[in-house]
Inverse folding.
């Protein structure tokens, strides 16, 4: 992962503390770098004041959906008698092409711990869980060590810093299911149940983990909170560039066949072209950019003409996609879109929980059709079938957002690269070979 130099706390609140040797920042060093100052400030404030501060700062969820974080906190019950509440961090980072939360947890574990303490105070939670992707073994070790360090320093557990506030924090490793990125499926898994999404309402803020009020936020979302407490609303809003309405900074990056694939903390509103050319070093020699996904495998493809758009929720949505996790994937001109989509849909079909029929049956059906087209064995009407599947799996037609996200790349690929799908229909095998860069006389 690429890290830029000359960072300051004012310009790079998430990553300025990172070490050049990429080793974790432990408690003593973290506290020398303004660590836990945000906790001290938060504990001196009423919980509602903390919620209001985060709401005014305009922090939006960094896990993909972009729901305002302060607003989510404000939905927790006001009834003081409901004294058992849970704060959960969604660290089940299983979106293909996304690895931003891993960097924070492995190298800055105390930043997440501090953010969890502040969030717990804001929503009046006495216990918290970091629901972590099971494959993130190093992150789990580092987070557990950070929690123990914080406990020993009086920053976790009973009577935090003499404030009278209690908060326990635990790391829970998952069993490797993409669907656990959906907050109610995550809660079911945390409870030891099958990881199926729950019917909503009731929402987790009313009835979440073990039937109690629960708030679930992404790792990067929570890691933004300490700096907002430290430096205030006006500073956070001032980090934005290019007239973006979204506030703060964001971990963004590019993967694929670029010269310098990586991850960087950049202001919201930074253009995709700047990230691709100035940070990722552009496409590798001999390759042209064909298309790109702005934020993970479950986002619609965009074209090179969209590269000058600011990377924020509003502009990317208007272009027909979603910002998602803001870790873009570059697709070069030698990649066949049918093969790429077949690979993506195989993943999404495998990761369906199987709870609802459209997702359970529709996604494998799309894989079957795509595989036939990929091998030049598609039948007339197959493309129309795929388009119908995209409509049938659209938002509102399935139990959760898994299937709608799964068909986003498919519907956009058909929209922009229909001729590649048409070339796989039976009787047009030569066209398929040409798109793949194979001459008709080659075996």
């Amino acid at each position: 992962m690429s890290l830029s130099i000359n960072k300051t706390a004012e310009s790079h609140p998430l990553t300025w503390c990172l070490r050049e040797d990429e080793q974790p920042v432990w408690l003593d060093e973290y506290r020398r770098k303004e660590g836990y100052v945000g906790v001290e400030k938060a504990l001196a404030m009423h919980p509602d004041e903390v919620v209001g501060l985060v709401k005014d700062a305009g922090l939006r969820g960094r896990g993909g959906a972009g729901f305002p974080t302060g607003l989510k906190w404000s939905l927790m019950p006001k009834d003081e008698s409901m004294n058992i509440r849970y704060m959960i961090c969604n660290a089940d980072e299983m979106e293909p092409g996304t690895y931003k939360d891993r960097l924070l947890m492995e190298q800055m574990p105390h930043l997440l711990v501090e953010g969890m303490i502040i969030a717990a105070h804001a929503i009046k939670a006495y216990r918290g869980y970091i629901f972590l992707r099971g494959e993130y073994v190093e992150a789990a070790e580092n987070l557990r060590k950070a929690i123990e360090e914080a406990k020993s320093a009086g920053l976790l557990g009973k009577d935090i810093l003499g404030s009278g506030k209690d908060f326990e924090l635990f790391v829970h490793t998952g069993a490797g299911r993409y669907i656990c990125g959906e907050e109610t499926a995550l809660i079911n898994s945390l409870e030891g149940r099958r990881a199926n999404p729950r019917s909503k309402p009731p929402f987790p803020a009313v009835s979440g983990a073990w039937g109690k009020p629960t708030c679930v936020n992404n790792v990067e979302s929570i890691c933004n909170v300490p700096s907002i407490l430290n430096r205030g609303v006006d500073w956070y809003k001032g980090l934005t560039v290019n007239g973006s309405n979204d506030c703060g900074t964001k971990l963004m990056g590019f993967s694929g066949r670029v010269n310098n694939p990586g991850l960087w903390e950049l202001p919201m509103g930074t253009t995709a072209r700047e990230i691709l050319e100035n940070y990722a070093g552009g496409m590798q020699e001999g390759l042209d950019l064909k298309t790109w996904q702005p934020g993970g495998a479950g986002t619609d493809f965009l074209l090179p003409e969209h590269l000058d758009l600011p990377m924020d929720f509003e502009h990317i949505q208007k272009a027909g996609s979603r910002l998602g996790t803001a870790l873009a994937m570059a697709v070069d001109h030698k990649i066949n879109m049918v093969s790429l989509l077949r690979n993506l849909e195989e993943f999404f079909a495998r990761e369906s929980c199987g709870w609802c029929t459209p997702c359970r049956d529709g996604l494998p059906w799309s894989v079957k059709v795509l595989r036939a087209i990929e091998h030049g064995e598609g039948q007339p009407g197959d493309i129309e079938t795929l388009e119908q599947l995209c409509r049938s799996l659209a938002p509102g037609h399935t139990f959760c957002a898994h299937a709608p996200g799964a068909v986003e790349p498919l519907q956009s690929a058909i929209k922009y690269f229909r001729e590649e799908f048409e070339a796989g229909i039976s009787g047009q095998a030569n066209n398929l070979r040409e798109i793949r860069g194979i001459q008709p006389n080659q075996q």
Q: What stands out?
A: The beta strands are 86-91, 127-132, 168-173, 214-218, 249-256, 262-267, 289-293, 327-332. The chain has three domains: 27-237, 249-332, 337-435. The two ends are 39 Å apart (CA to CA).
